[in-house]
Design goal:
single chain, 157 residues, alpha/beta, Rossmann fold, three-stranded parallel beta sheet, 13% strand, globular
Length: 157
């Protein structure tokens, strides 16, 4: 991968989290009422795949940042947690990408998207519910909720 691709991925997937969490923490510190910061982590952070090094590296760095943020901001009453999602149809995982990956694995797109322990496709709504849960969880910090229907290789260890 080129340096340019790595830099773009780090800018979006790491620095975006760093800059936003730092600014949110400044506001929360001034308000002195606590708060919640939820990071968007990916399966790539814990179970990297071939040809995804720029994305997976940036997401792994964001996971480490979430853990450090929990340590730094916890004394202010600010929780810092993360959602670890996989195989969600998004701007990154388009229908074309699903077609390509399912073809490479010799399965249908339907089966590829349901290739988890629960045998169901995970939706953006499922992921949003996890973000909401962590935003409301006042006694949880430094935690990761995985939303992937059950991918053994990506389970947190």
């Amino acid at each position: 991968m080129s340096d340019e691709v790595f830099r773009k991925s780090m800018d979006l997937n790491f620095w975006g989290h760093q800059l936003m969490s730092r600014e949110a923490a400044k506001v929360m510190r001034k308000q002195n009422t606590g708060g919640a910061i939820v990071f968007n982590i990916s399966k790539q952070a814990v179970n990297p795949g071939a040809e995804f090094a720029p994305y997976g590296t940036a997401k792994a760095a964001a996971l480490a940042l979430m853990r450090h943020s929990a340590i730094e901001y916890g004394p202010m009453g600010v929780t810092c947690n993360a959602v670890n999602a996989d195989r969600i149809r998004t701007g990154l995982m388009t229908d074309a990408m699903v077609e390509e990956r399912s073809r490479a694995r010799g399965v249908t797109p339907h089966d590829y998207m349901r290739g988890n322990l629960l045998g169901r496709e995970v939706t953006g709504e499922d992921v949003a519910e996890a973000f909401l849960h962590l935003a409301k969880a006042r006694a949880t910090t430094g935690a990761v909720i995985t939303v992937d229907g059950g991918n053994v290789a990506a389970m947190m260890r």
